[in-house]
Design goal:
The protein is an alpha/beta fold. The chain is built from 15 helices and 17 strands. The radius of gyration is 27 Å and the shape is globular. This is Sulfatase N-terminal domain-containing protein.
């Protein structure tokens, strides 16, 4: 009997001791509990542009590999259909109007590096919390959340004031004005009006002067001189900003230093890739957060010669394929450094593809698959449904597809919790931790309702009826497409949020996205028995949501949006702002 008891205890203890001996050291455990985090965010990429989401002509093998080795989300929703508000929501885990980062006017994004609007200093980004948890935090690429508030060097909206230890990239966004050979893009219609007004004023003054010389008009030379001075002042006022967009907005910065003004677009891609790889290599021995915010695939679609002409979708397809290659280069470095199993990788786009972006017969914007609408459209799925992929070998299952409503705002609580941080308790956080859903610990997303804004205007809302699996979506406002039936606002270049360019619906348009994801067949009380019940349920949720909103300063007000010379980042003595401090840096091999 004693022998049997001894044998029994030995058989129990031996595996326990053996298991303890195989445990990794404490340092390794801490790395696993605080994984490295790499966030890839594309710019203006449509969900239909990626292979694993159904595109079979644009080649995206590296993004597809992430989906194969990880989890793919099919209902990943941006909080806004444009860059600035969507990224503000991503960084803060909050609807952008909570931080004042959605617009009351038609200027719905940060318009100038020399503007005073931007992500408020009192907002807490996930980068700041991870920084407090001991992470090295880096942002490479696009920012578009503002730079200064009151002086040229206060950097109140700068990435380094929002939790990033290191920044290299564009404080603004890539636009066609950055490429001298391209047609200017920024505020194109308004610029035409300014030119026309200047010419008309000049012509009127010249006519009056000729009339004075010939005696046909009785006007004093003093009056004509004052009018000429006014005309010149008017021209200087607007041309000093719009005439030098490339110098004011198309700049590159390293931390607080302007390194290229204007940027040299031929080497931008190589420098962004080199900086991303260098950041990983410098910080591989401690937890790090790398936010690689691509300039791809925003116009002017800067693409290196190696990728030109490779895609069957013209320059846009070439640009997407180059971005995919960049993803692959970063993944290769993660593998080479032995970080694959301790790194959470995420890929997404900030919003849907830009349907109206065309030059002649060239389509320069993305494709949103079966989904209706696109960039700038706050309600339709094509403007807000984006790719969403997570990979973390050994922690997340491979090849899993989740068809549950999720949001870009969910990244905030997800990475904060993984880092061991605590969510802010003094404000509403709209995002939800995705790890239980990604790991299969729960069946449904925590989001019962999601609200879809265009600027500060609520255009639509969705209800996830979890017991039935239905996903109801009610549209209260929709843009008027022109030409009629065209699927976008080709007459404007962007669909508006309010005014004559939209239609208000009462009762709202209702769709069941679980049956009609393309939003092609609106339901009615005659065709859907639950119509009134669903509309009332969503209406009550909207009222509840609105009670959580508090007034905040409007970061995209007209005053904050306009160019202010005293706020303009400058690498010289203003207004003599030009430099190239990257000329001696060898670009990465492409």
């Amino acid at each position: 009997m004693i022998w049997q008891l001894t044998s029994c205890w030995t058989s129990l203890i031996r595996p326990l001791i053996f298991g303890l001996l195989l445990q990794p050291p404490i340092a390794q455990l801490s790395i696993i509990t605080q994984p490295n985090i790499v966030l890839f965010m594309a710019d203006d990429l449509g969900i239909g542009d990626v292979g694993c989401y159904g595109n079979d002509t644009i080649r995206t093998p590296n993004i597809d590999r992430l989906a194969k080795e990880g989890v793919k989300l099919t209902q990943h929703i941006a909080a806004a259909p444009l860059c600035t508000p969507s990224r503000a929501a991503f960084l803060t885990g909050r609807y952008p109007l909570r931080s004042g980062m959605d617009a009351v006017n038609n200027y719905r994004v940060i318009f100038w590096n020399g503007g005073s609007g931007g992500l408020p200093p009192n907002e807490t980004t996930f980068a700041r919390i991870l920084q407090q948890q001991g992470y090295s935090t880096g942002l490479i690429g696009k920012w578009h959340q503002g730079v200064n508030c009151e002086s040229r060097n206060d950097h109140c909206h700068h990435p380094l004031k929002h939790g990033f230890d290191y920044f290299y990239g564009m404080p603004f966004t890539l636009i066609s004005d950055c490429q001298p050979t391209e047609t200017p893009e920024m505020d194109r219609g308004f610029r035409r009006k300014l030119w026309f007004s200047t010419q008309m004023i000049g012509l009127a003054i010249l006519t009056a002067a000729l009339g004075r010389l010939t005696g046909l008009i009785s006007v004093s030379w003093k009056t004509l001189t004052c009018l000429a001075g006014f005309s010149l002042l008017f021209f200087i006022c607007w041309f000093s900003s719009y005439g030098f967009v490339r110098y004011w907005n198309c700049i590159m910065m390293r931390n607080h230093e302007v390194t290229e003004q204007p940027m040299v677009t031929d080497r931008t891609t190589s420098h962004i890739l080199k900086e991303s790889i260098s950041f990983i290599e410098r910080n591989k021995h401690k937890p790090f957060l790398l936010f690689l915010s691509f300039l791809h695939s925003h116009t002017p679609l800067i693409t290196t010669k190696k990728f030109l002409g490779r895609s069957s979708h013209g320059l846009y397809g070439d640009n997407v394929e180059e971005m995919d290659w960049m993803v692959g280069q970063v993944l290769d470095v993660i593998d080479k450094e032995g970080l694959k199993n301790t790194t959470l990788v995420y890929f997404a786009s900030d919003h849907g593809g830009w349907l109206e972006r065309q030059e002649g017969q060239r389509q320069l914007g993305g494709w949103n698959g079966i989904y209706r609408g696109g960039k700038a459209m706050g309600g339709w799925e094509g403007g807000i449904r984006v790719p969403g992929i997570f990979r973390w070998p050994g922690v997340l299952p491979a090849g899993k597809v989740i068809d549950e409503p999720t949001s870009l705002m969910d990244i905030y609580p997800t990475v904060v919790n993984l880092a061991g941080g605590v969510l802010p308790q003094d404000r509403v956080i709209d995002g939800r931790d995705l790890m239980p859903l990604l790991q299969g610990m729960v069946e449904h997303s925590e989001h019962e309702f999601l609200f879809h804004y265009c600027g500060i205007h609520l255009h639509a809302a969705r209800w996830h009826q979890k017991d039935s699996g239905a996903i109801w979506k009610a549209h209260y406002v929709t843009p008027i497409f022109r030409p009629l039936g065209a699927g976008a606002c080709y007459d404007r270049g962007f669909c508006p949020c309010f005014g004559e360019g939209v239609t208000h619906h009462d009762p709202p348009l209702l769709f069941d996205l679980s049956e009609d994801p393309a939003e092609a067949k609106p339901l009615s009380a005659d065709t859907e028995p639950l119509f009134d019940t669903v509309i009332k349920k969503i209406g009550r949720a909207i009222e509840e949501h609105r009670r959580t909103l508090t007034p905040v300063p409007e970061q995209l007000s007209m005053y904050n949006v306009v160019w202010k010379p005293w706020l303009q980042p400058c690498c010289g003595t203003f207004p003599f702002c030009w430099c190239d401090k990257e000329g001696d840096n060898k670009p990465a091999n492409l």
